[in-house]
Task: inverse folding
């Protein structure tokens, strides 16, 4: 008992040789969905569970939430069992699809889930309005969710997962069915929530999503963990070097090439491409500013104010970010989190400190209405590194903040 | 309680917005008034009311029973199938609270609907006599025979064992017993039962020119000098050509001379219920009353009063309103049982199978008398395994037909509080709660998630 309590202090989720075997009624066609899985997810960590279809990600989550019983092994969630109302009151769960009551309106849906958490009516109302704002569905709050598109249903699904201001958020494929802006918002939200001290278990096969937000990942295949570790450590390639500069003359490029060849290495010089995601967001953001009408979800950047980790970090975030631009929103705020891949013990205080590092100005401007000229700066990289065009936001940010990047991220999957 | 209530509220919303309840509500709203107008019965106002209340109650009961089964099964199985339960059950709500919430929602909906439709039936029943502007004789008749609640006394069966023994001894002496009766004990027992039934039947039969006298004691009407009623039905050995039986009836105290007796001469159709009104002072001060029937020589057949309800004495001891209310409560007991059954079935079966199971139970319960009889018959030759498997299952089934409110309202028979309490105790407190307990047990151990890989 005592031992378990010690464990609880350290890990939000811990599984011990979790095994789940499915069989038909007669015990035939045995399939091992999860095999001998031992996961340890620390408090305040964004943990990504990756794997192809049928690799056991969702099954693992269902076992954690006691929707399935493990064949062998056991799991501890927030130091207890998820069926215990005291524990489940601190969990937010978004299943792989938003299973909603089609006949309820968006507001009634949240009302229903709020009641299940026994939230006092005043708090409930406040949170519902705040969440509707946050997921951009305030305008359609009284429409039955059965008439919602998949992405809109996803947003309501996310809102219901957050209504209890959970300590642990379990998200199963959170970005499926969402438009790129919605995807971005969810990613930003995840990072923002982690900053507020929440633990997040993210389960996806969209690698870009996981890469952008997760501190640590585990890759599942056939119900077993194939690889586990910090994203940075897993992806960093120490045998290559990438140099990013401002615009330089052809002469300078030649000189750099000479230097590189004197080191017995080859190099390729190109101009970096903008990511399609960034481009898309910029176009839509411009359209939104012209207030073009839409019957769908509205992108907003507000975060429910009640989603706190005890102290109001949000206020500090907003006031600090406000100096940079009027769009002091979570999209910017994510940046500082991405530089830090060691969040294991960062409490609210650590997160606060972290924020003091300056938000990235370049990405900030990209997300607002000032389009940065595309491909004006030549980038010198190692040969063969063509995949650099798929580099993530993280890398872009680091390129500008450090000007020389010693780590090249490659989409090796 | 908070979360139970949230689930209950959601269940009611589901039933209303998915238009399950709407279909039934429309059916009842349309059918009840139509029945009120179209049902004429035997042409009298009383007959009209009896037919209406009989069909109206049966229809309401049938539709609400079906609605209960469908809503309870649908709301649980649909949550599991559409997987909304994933997000509900992972919230701080215990699994038993989830099921109780579903049950509460279904019951609340049904209580409201039951109250609504009982009110419709009641209103139609009360206003029909006013609409048809009945005369005084008819109004009195309605008051005495319909808008009332009367105690029923069935004459005690006479002990015929001595006569049977005597007859048996005589037959044995004369050597008229069938040879196999003397040979085996079981054949002998069967013969004795047959003989006893024969003797009992003789007591209920009047040959031409003979009479039967029934003696009642402890007849206590709620008001002094109010009328009493003899309700009877003739059966005959040979059908008379015009299906009519002539009879002379007596009622009064026959214990000492001079007899203070009322006499009635009647002719009535066979195999139909009739009532004879007897003045209240026919009953002696100590509550004694004798009723006699003389099979007059005009008839050419033996007249038999069938066992059970062949002859009853009725007198007022309660009100129609009270009776009506208790009848509604009886229906409610059925609904509670069926709701629990539906919840149980949906914890381990899919929607169509669960519905099928519930409907089978419902229809068996509606003909429980027949089912019990056939099981008894089969059980005579069956062994221990049968007694410990099939019998408890049959015992668990409720008996909707045995306690049908219509059987009390139509003849204006008192439906006692004690009877309602008994039904509530057995059908709700024992049977329904047992089903619910099994449901909670299954559901708390069940793997909620669908197995997907």
Result:
């Amino acid at each position: 008992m005592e031992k378990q309590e010690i464990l609880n202090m350290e890990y939000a989720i811990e599984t011990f040789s979790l095994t789940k075997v499915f069989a038909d009624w007669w015990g035939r066609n045995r399939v091992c969905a999860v095999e001998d899985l031992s996961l340890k997810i620390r408090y305040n960590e964004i943990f990504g569970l990756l794997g192809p279809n049928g690799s056991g990600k969702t099954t693992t989550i269902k076992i954690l939430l006691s929707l399935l019983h493990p064949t062998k092994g056991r799991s501890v969630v927030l130091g207890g069992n998820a069926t215990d109302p005291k524990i489940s009151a601190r969990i937010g769960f978004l299943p792989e699809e938003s299973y909603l009551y089609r006949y309820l309106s968006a507001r009634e849906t949240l009302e229903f889930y709020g009641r299940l958490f026994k939230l006092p009516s005043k708090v409930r109302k406040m949170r519902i309005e705040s969440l509707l704002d946050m997921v951009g569905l305030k305008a359609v709050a009284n429409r039955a969710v059965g008439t919602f598109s998949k992405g809109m249903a996803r947003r309501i699904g996310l809102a219901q997962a957050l209504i209890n201001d959970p300590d642990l958020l379990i998200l199963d494929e959170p970005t499926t069915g969402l438009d790129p802006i919605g995807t971005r918002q969810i990613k930003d939200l995840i990072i923002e929530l982690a900053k507020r001290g929440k633990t997040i278990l993210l389960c996806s096969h969209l690698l870009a999503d996981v890469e952008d937000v997760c501190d640590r990942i585990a890759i599942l295949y056939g119900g077993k963990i194939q690889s586990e570790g910090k994203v940075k450590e897993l992806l960093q390639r120490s045998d290559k070097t990438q140099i990013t500069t401002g615009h330089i003359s052809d002469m300078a490029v030649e000189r750099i090439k000479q230097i590189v060849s004197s080191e017995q290495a080859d190099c390729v010089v190109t101009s970096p491409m903008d990511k399609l995601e960034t481009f898309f967001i910029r176009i839509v953001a411009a359209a939104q500013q012209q207030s073009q009408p839409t019957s769908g979800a509205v992108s907003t950047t507000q975060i429910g104010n009640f989603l706190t980790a005890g102290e109001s970090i949000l206020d500090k975030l907003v006031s600090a970010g406000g100096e940079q631009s009027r769009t002091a929103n979570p999209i910017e705020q994510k940046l500082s989190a991405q530089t830090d891949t060691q969040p294991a013990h960062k409490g609210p205080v650590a997160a606060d400190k972290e924020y003091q590092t300056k938000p990235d100005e370049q990405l900030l401007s990209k997300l607002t209405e000032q389009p940065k000229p595309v491909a004006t700066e030549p980038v010198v990289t190692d040969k063969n590194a063509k995949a650099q065009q798929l580099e993530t936001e993280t890398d872009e940010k680091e390129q500008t903040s450090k000007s020389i990047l010693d780590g090249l991220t490659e989409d090796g999957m | 309680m908070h979360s139970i209530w949230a689930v209950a509220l959601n269940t009611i919303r589901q039933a209303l917005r998915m238009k399950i309840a709407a279909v039934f509500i429309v059916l009842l709203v349309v059918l009840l008034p139509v029945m009120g107008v179209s049902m004429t019965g035997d042409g009298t106002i009383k007959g009209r009311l009896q037919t209406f209340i009989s069909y109206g109650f049966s229809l309401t009961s049938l539709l609400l029973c079906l609605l209960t089964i469908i809503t309870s099964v649908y709301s649980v199985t649909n949550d599991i199938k559409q997987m909304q339960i994933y997000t509900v059950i992972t919230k701080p709500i215990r699994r038993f609270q989830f099921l109780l919430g579903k049950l509460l929602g279904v019951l609340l909906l049904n209580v409201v609907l039951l109250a609504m439709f009982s009110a419709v039936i009641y209103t139609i029943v009360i206003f029909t006599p006013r609409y048809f502007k009945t005369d005084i004789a008819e109004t009195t008749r309605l008051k005495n025979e319909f808008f009332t609640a009367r105690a029923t006394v069935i004459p005690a069966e006479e002990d015929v064992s001595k006569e049977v023994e005597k007859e048996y001894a005589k037959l044995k002496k004369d050597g008229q017993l069938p040879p196999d009766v003397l040979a085996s004990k079981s054949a002998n027992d069967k013969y004795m039962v047959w003989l006893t039934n024969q003797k009992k039947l003789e007591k209920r039969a009047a040959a031409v020119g003979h009479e039967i006298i029934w003696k009642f004691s402890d007849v206590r009407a709620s008001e002094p000098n109010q009328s009493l009623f003899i309700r009877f039905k003739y059966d005959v050995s040979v059908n008379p050509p015009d299906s009519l039986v002539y009879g002379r009836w007596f009622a009064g105290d026959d214990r000492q001379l001079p007899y203070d007796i009322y006499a009635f001469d009647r002719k009535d159709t066979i195999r139909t219920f009739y009532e004879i009104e007897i003045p209240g002072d026919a009953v002696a001060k100590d509550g004694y009353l004798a009723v006699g029937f003389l099979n007059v020589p005009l008839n050419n057949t033996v007249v038999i009063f069938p066992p059970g309800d062949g002859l009853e004495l009725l007198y007022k001891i309660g009100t129609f309103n009270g009776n009506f209310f208790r009848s509604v409560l009886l229906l409610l007991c059925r609904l509670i049982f069926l709701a629990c059954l539906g919840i149980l079935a949906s914890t381990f079966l899919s929607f169509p199978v669960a519905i099928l199971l519930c409907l089978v139970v419902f229809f068996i319960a509606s003909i429980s008398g027949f089912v019990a009889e056939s099981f008894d018959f089969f059980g005579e030759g069956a062994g221990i395994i049968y007694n410990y498997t099939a019998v408890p299952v049959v015992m668990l089934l409720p008996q909707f037909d045995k306690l049908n409110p219509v059987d009390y309202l139509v003849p204006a028979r008192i439906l006692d509080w004690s009877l309602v309490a008994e039904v509530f105790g057995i059908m709700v407190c024992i049977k329904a709660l047992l089903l619910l307990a099994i449901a909670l047990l299954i559901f708390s151990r069940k793997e909620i998630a669908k197995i997907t890989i």
